[in-house]
Design a protein that fits this description.
Layout: E1 12-16, H1 24-33, E2 38-39, H2 47-55, H3 57-65, H4 70-80, E3 83-84, H5 96-108, E4 112-119, H6 122-135, H7 138-141, H8 146-150, H9 152-172, E5 176-180, H10 187-196, H11 200-210, E6 222-227, H12 234-250, E7 258-264, H13 272-287, E8 291-298, H14 310-323, E9 328-331, E10 336-338, H15 343-358, E11 368-371, E12 383-384, H16 386-391, H17 408-415, E13 424-432, H18 453-456, H19 462-470, E14 479-487, H20 492-499, E15 507-515, H21 518-529, H22 537-548, E16 554-559, H23 566-576, E17 581-585, E18 590-591, H24 595-606, E19 612-620, H25 629-636, E20 662-666, H26 683-692, E21 697-707, H27 715-729, H28 732-735, E22 740-742, H29 747-760, H30 765-784, H31 786-794, H32 802-829, E23 838-840, H33 850-890
Parallel strand pairs: 1-3, 1-4, 2-3, 4-5, 6-7, 6-9, 7-8, 11-13, 14-15, 14-17, 15-16, 19-21
Antiparallel strand pairs: 9-12, 10-13, 17-20, 18-21, 19-20, 22-23
Length: 899
C-alpha cells in the first residue's frame, strides 16, 4: 500500500444502494485507503422524514426527489466523489424509477454511475441498525410512540426485507452488482474491479488492511444481579421458574445483551434447588446468544439469626459483574416483572446521553428503572462501570458499615444527581411483587435503615467530581432542589400548576406532596380513577402521583395515616428529601411559571456563601378595583405584611424570616417544631430563626412570586382563621425572649383584666359599654396618624371611596383585636402568663425603633381605655345601677324606687 494516492475515477461514480448497516463502512474504508473521494453522510431529517423512511421508504424518496433542489444536490455529490454510500442513496432501491432517473441525469452530465449493493445477513443488519437508532437517538428524533418503539425491530425487518427484494430485482435487470459482506475479502475485489477501473489486487489489499469494519461499537453488557434463598421446598421450583421468566422478559428486547451474577448462600451451595438453578443458567448462557455469560459467587457464611446484609451482597455481585465486563449493573429479583420490551434500548440511550452531555466515556451515571410498584423512587438504579473506577466497589469504602439492607438504591442515585447523571428512564418499566414501597408489600427480610445517608451523600460526591475533572469531562453541576408541599385540601387546581413548574436546565427538581387528609386523598383518587371501589392509601397515592406527573416533572406523593398538622407534614417532606435545597410552598397558591428560574438564578449567585441559609419569595395577595371590603381590611390590617416582605427591600436587606407559603432553605438538620398549631402559626418564624442562628441570613427574591388567593369564607371565618393563627405564634415569645419586649395592655388584655373585676363587683353592664368604646379608641388612635392611615389605604393599590377606606380600617382593627385575643388565649392555654403584656418583635431587631413606636401607640390606646372606663364609671355607672335594678324588679313585680 505504498503506492501514491490514486487519482479520481474518471467519469465514473460508484453508488452503493445497499441498506444501512450492511457493509458501507467496510466499503468506504477500503475506498478511502485507495485514495478515492468517498461520501457517506447522513443528512439532517425532519421528524416526518424519519417516520417515512422507517415505515414507507418509497414515499420518503419520492417526496424528497420531488423537492426542487434534490436532484441538483445529489448530482453535485456525484460529481465531486468517486464512491457514495448511505443517506438518500441507500434508499434508491425502494424507488427504482428514481434510481433510473438519477442515472440518466448523471449520464447527461458526463458521469457514468455504477450501482453496487452491499448486503449482509438480514438479522445482523436489523440488529446493527437497531443499535444505530439507539446510539444516534433516532427514536426521539422520529417522535416514535410507545407502540412504534415496541414494533421498531419488526418495522426494520419489514423495510430490510423489502429492500433485499428490490435489490434482487435490480440485479436481475443488470442494474446492480451485489456485494455480500460475508465475502468481502474474496468477491468484493473482483466485482469492484469491474466497476472502478482499479485492480483486483489493490482492492484485495485494501480490504485485507481495513477488515470488516462496523461503525457501531460492541453492544454494552447489562449486569443482572440476583440473590435469593432457594432451599429444597416446593417453592424452590417456583423461584427457579420465576428467574427464567425474568430472563425471558429481559430478552424481549432483541438488542439486549446481558450477563447474570448469582449470589448463593454458603449453606445452600450444594442443595438440589441451587444446583438445578446453576445448571439451567449455565445452559442458558451457552444456548441464548443474548446472554453474554453467567457467574456465581458464594455469600459469606452467617448465622440464621443475623440480619440479611443485602447491601454487602449487592456490592460483591456488582464488583464481580464489572470485573467480568459489565457496562452497568442492576440488582433485580425473581419477583420482578419487566413491563417494557425495549428497556435495554432505553437504558442504553440514557447512558449515551449522559456520556455525550458530560463528555465522559460511556458507562458513567445511574439511570434508574421506572418501578410502577413504587413510582418516583429509584428502587432499581443502573450503576455504570465508571462507578467501579471511582470507588473500587459499589459502596464507598468508608460507608460500607452504614448500609445493611436499605437505602443503598436512593443513595447511589443521589450520588449522581448533582451531575444530572441519574435520570428516570420512564419507558423502562417493571413491577416489584415483593418489597419495594413499605406501604405496598412486605419484604422478605427485616428492614434496617441507613441512618443519616441523606446528609452525608453530599459529602461523598467529591470523588465523582474529581473523576470528571481527571478525564476532562464537563464540570457543570446542577443544584438539587426538592419542592415540599403539605396539603390538607388536595385541590388539583392548585397542585397541578405547582407540579408543572418550568425547571431550568441547571436545576434537578423533585416535587414532594405530603397529604395530611386520608379521607380527601381517597375521595380525589376515586374521582381520578373513575371507580367506586375502596382504594388503599397506597393506591390513592399512586393515582394522585400519576395525575400530578403528567407534566413530565418528577412527583412523589405521600399520605400521613392521621392528620398531624402542617409542621409534622413539612417534617415528613424533609425526611423524604435528600436534596441540597428545599422549597416550601403552600397548597393554596398559584406560582408564576418562572418561579424556579428566579430562585435558581439567586441560588447560583449565593450558593458559595455559607452564610446564606435561605431565600424568601414574594407571596402576593391579589388587588383589583372591586376587592371586597373584608379582604381590603385584611390588607390594611398588616396581617399579610410578612407574606410580601420580599418586595420590601426598602426596609431591610435580609429579613429575619419568611412565611412557609414560599420560602427556600439550604439543607439543614433543623425540623419544624410540632408544638405549634396544626393549622400553622409561628412555626415559620421559629424555623427561620433557628436555621439562621446568629450568623445566617435570608435573602429576598421578589421575582420568585406566587399569588395567594384570600382565605375563603365570611368575616367570621376570617376572624376565626386569624384567631387560630395567633394561638400558635404566641408561643414565640417564650421561645425567643431576645425578640420580646413589654408593652402596655392591648384591648384584649385590658378586657381580660377588667371584665372579671366588673363581674365580681356586680356591674356586668359596664362591659357592654367598654367593648365598643375600646374599639372606638383603638380606631381613633390609628386614624389620628394621617401618614399611617394613608399608607394603609395605599396598600389596596386602587382608588376607592373615602367611606370604603374608613370602614375597611375599622374592620382591619377588629381583625387585629381578634388576633390579639387568639394570642392571649394561647398564652393562657400554655400557662405562659408572663407573656401577657409582652410583644414579639416581628422585625427581629432589623428595625430598632419598631418596638418603641409600637409601645408608644399602645400607651396611647391604653390611656384611652382607662379614660373610657373612668367616664363610664363617673357618668353612667349610677344610672346604670338603677336601670339594672329596675329591670330586675320589673320581672318580680316589686316597686321600683323613683330616680
Amino acid at each position: 500500500m505504498a503506492e501514491p494516492r490514486a487519482s479520481r475515477l474518471e467519469g465514473i461514480c460508484v453508488v452503493n444502494v445497499g441498506h444501512y448497516r450492511s457493509g458501507s463502512t467496510t466499503l468506504a474504508g477500503a475506498a478511502t485507503l485507495l485514495g478515492l473521494n468517498v461520501y457517506r453522510k447522513f443528512p439532517d431529517l425532519t421528524q416526518e422524514q424519519y417516520q417515512d423512511i422507517l415505515h414507507d421508504p418509497e414515499k420518503a424518496v419520492t417526496k424528497y426527489f420531488s423537492t426542487p433542489d434534490a436532484m441538483d444536490f445529489l448530482l453535485g455529490i456525484i460529481k465531486e466523489h468517486d464512491l457514495v454510500c448511505d443517506g438518500w442513496f441507500a434508499l434508491l432501491a425502494h424507488a427504482p424509477h428514481w434510481l433510473l432517473k438519477l442515472e440518466k441525469e448523471a449520464n447527461q452530465n458526463g458521469i457514468h454511475l455504477k450501482f453496487v449493493a452491499s448486503v449482509r445477513d438480514p438479522s445482523a443488519t436489523i440488529q446493527s441498525e437497531l443499535q444505530h437508532w439507539v446510539r444516534h437517538g433516532l427514536e426521539a428524533k422520529a417522535g416514535l410512540s410507545h407502540e412504534d418503539r415496541e414494533k421498531l425491530p419488526l418495522s426494520l425487518k419489514i423495510r430490510t426485507d423489502k429492500h433485499l427484494e428490490s435489490i434482487q430485482k435490480l440485479k436481475e435487470q443488470g442494474k446492480v452488482t451485489i456485494l455480500p459482506l460475508e465475502e468481502a475479502d474474496s468477491i468484493w475485489p473482483k466485482e469492484l474491479t469491474k466497476v472502478s477501473k482499479l485492480s483486483e489486487e489493490r482492492w484485495a489489499e485494501a480490504f485485507k488492511t481495513v477488515g470488516k469494519k462496523n461503525a457501531n461499537p460492541p453492544l454494552p453488557i447489562e449486569g443482572i444481579l440476583l440473590t435469593m434463598r432457594i432451599g429444597n421446598t416446593p417453592q424452590s421450583d417456583t423461584m427457579i421458574r420465576s428467574v427464567e421468566r425474568l430472563l425471558d422478559e429481559l430478552e424481549q428486547d432483541s438488542l439486549c445483551r446481558y450477563m447474570v451474577v448469582l449470589a448463593i448462600d454458603a449453606d445452600e451451595e450444594s442443595s438440589d434447588g441451587t444446583q438445578d438453578l446453576l445448571q439451567r443458567l449455565h445452559s442458558r448462557a451457552n444456548s441464548h446468544y443474548q446472554m453474554h455469560s453467567f457467574h456465581s459467587i458464594i455469600n459469606e457464611d452467617r448465622d440464621n439469626t443475623q440480619l440479611l446484609p443485602l447491601c454487602r451482597i449487592w456490592e460483591n455481585m456488582a464488583v464481580k459483574a464489572w470485573e467480568e465486563g459489565a457496562d452497568w449493573v442492576v440488582l433485580l429479583g425473581d419477583d420482578i416483572r419487566i413491563q417494557c420490551s425495549y428497556h435495554y434500548r432505553a437504558i442504553y440511550r440514557s447512558f449515551l446521553e449522559i456520556s455525550e452531555r458530560l463528555k465522559v466515556p460511556f458507562g458513567f451515571g445511574s439511570p434508574w428503572w421506572n418501578d410502577t410498584t413504587f413510582p418516583g423512587f429509584p428502587t432499581f438504579p443502573c450503576i455504570g462501570k465508571a462507578h467501579y473506577a471511582i470507588f473500587r466497589g459499589l459502596i464507598p469504602p468508608h460507608r460500607r458499615g452504614v448500609f445493611v439492607n436499605q437505602d443503598l438504591d436512593p443513595y447511589l442515585q443521589c450520588l449522581y444527581l448533582k451531575f444530572k447523571a441519574a435520570p428516570l428512564v420512564s419507558e423502562a418499566k417493571l413491577s416489584n411483587d415483593t418489597g419495594g414501597n413499605v406501604g405496598a408489600s412486605q419484604a422478605r427480610y427485616q428492614r434496617i435503615e441507613a441512618i443519616g445517608w441523606r446528609d452525608f451523600v453530599w459529602e461523598d460526591i467529591d470523588p465523582i467530581r474529581q473523576h470528571i475533572h481527571r478525564i476532562d469531562g464537563s464540570a457543570d453541576e446542577a443544584l438539587v432542589l426538592d419542592v415540599i408541599v403539605p396539603s390538607y385540601r388536595v385541590r388539583l387546581e392548585y397542585l397541578e400548576p405547582i407540579c408543572s413548574l418550568t425547571i431550568p436546565d441547571y436545576l434537578c427538581v423533585q416535587f414532594i406532596i405530603i397529604v395530611d387528609n386520608v379521607k380527601k386523598l381517597l375521595q380525589v383518587a376515586r374521582l381520578l380513577s373513575d371507580t367506586d371501589r375502596e382504594l388503599s392509601i397506597h393506591e390513592a397515592e399512586r393515582i394522585l402521583e400519576a395525575r400530578l406527573s403528567t407534566g413530565n416533572n418528577r412527583v412523589r406523593v405521600r399520605c400521613n395515616r392521621n392528620n398531624v398538622g402542617a409542621s409534622a407534614s413539612r417534617n415528613r417532606g424533609l425526611d423524604e428529601s435528600a436534596a441540597e435545597f428545599f422549597l416550601n410552598l403552600d397548597d393554596d397558591l398559584i406560582p408564576n411559571s418562572d418561579l424556579l428560574e428566579h430562585y435558581g438564578q439567586q441560588l447560583l449567585r449565593s450558593v458559595s456563601d455559607p452564610t446564606v441559609v435561605g431565600l424568601i419569595g414574594l407571596v402576593h395577595f391579589p388587588r383589583h378595583p372591586e376587592l371586597p371590603l373584608k379582604y381590603a381590611a385584611v390588607l390594611m390590617s398588616y396581617l399579610t405584611f410578612m407574606f410580601e416582605i420580599a418586595g420590601r427591600t426598602d426596609m431591610y436587606d435580609h429579613p429575619a424570616w419568611g412565611v412557609t407559603a414560599n420560602i427556600l432553605f439550604r439543607r439543614t438538620p433543623v425540623r419544624f417544631d410540632e408544638a405549634y398549631a396544626k393549622t400553622g402559626g409561628g412555626e415559620d418564624v421559629d424555623f427561620s430563626l433557628r436555621v439562621a442562628g446568629n450568623e445566617g441570613k435570608l435573602i429576598p427574591v421578589p421575582r420568585a412570586r406566587v399569588v395567594h388567593p384570600f382565605w375563603e369564607g365570611s368575616v367570621w371565618n376570617l376572624g376565626s382563621h386569624f384567631f387560630n393563627w395567633a394561638i400558635g405564634d404566641g408561643g414565640l415569645l417564650s421561645r425567643f425572649p431576645k425578640y420580646t419586649y413589654w408593652s402596655f395592655p392591648n384591648l384584649s388584655e385590658t378586657l381580660f383584666a377588667f371584665i372579671p373585676m366588673a363581674l365580681l363587683a356586680g356591674c356586668p353592664e359596664k362591659v357592654i359599654f367598654w367593648i365598643p368604646l375600646f374599639v372606638l379608641v383603638d380606631v381613633i388612635v390609628d386614624c389620628s396618624n394621617r401618614d399611617e392611615y394613608m399608607h394603609r389605604c395605599s396598600l389596596l393599590k386602587h382608588e376607592r371611596h373615602p367611606l370604603f377606606y374608613f370602614l375597611a380600617h375599622i374592620l382591619a382593627n377588629i381583625y387585629v383585636v381578634v388576633l390579639e385575643c387568639g394570642r392571649l388565649w394561647g398564652h393562657l392555654k400554655r400557662w405562659n402568663l408572663t407573656c401577657v403584656c409582652h410583644r414579639f418583635d416581628w422585625h427581629c431587631g432589623r428595625l430598632p425603633n419598631a418596638p418603641c413606636n409600637f409601645r408608644k401607640r399602645e400607651k396611647l390606646k391604653f390611656t384611652g381605655f382607662c379614660i373610657m372606663m373612668v367616664l363610664v364609671e363617673l357618668l353612667v355607672a349610677n344610672n346604670l345601677s338603677w336601670s339594672w335594678k329596675a329591670f330586675a324588679l320589673r320581672g318580680s313585680n316589686e316597686t321600683c324606687p323613683a330616680f
